Amino acid sequence: MGKSYQKQWTGVFGDPVDDNPTVVMEQAAFDAAGIPMEYLTIQVKKGQLEAAMQGMRAMNFTGINITMPHKGEVLKYLDEISESARTMGAVNTVYWKNGRLAGENTDGKGFLKSIQDGKVPIEGKKAVILGAGGAARAIAVELAAAGIRKITIINGNEEHGRSLVDIINEKTSAEGVFVHWKGDVHIPEDTDILVNATPVGFVDDKKPAIVYEDLKEGMTVCDVIPNKAWTGFLMEAKDRGLKTFNGLQMLINQGAIAYELWTGKKAPVDVMRAAMEKEYGVKLP
Ligand code: NDP
Question: Which of 9, 74, 186, 254 has the smallest CB count inside 10 Å?
Answer without folding.
Answer: 186
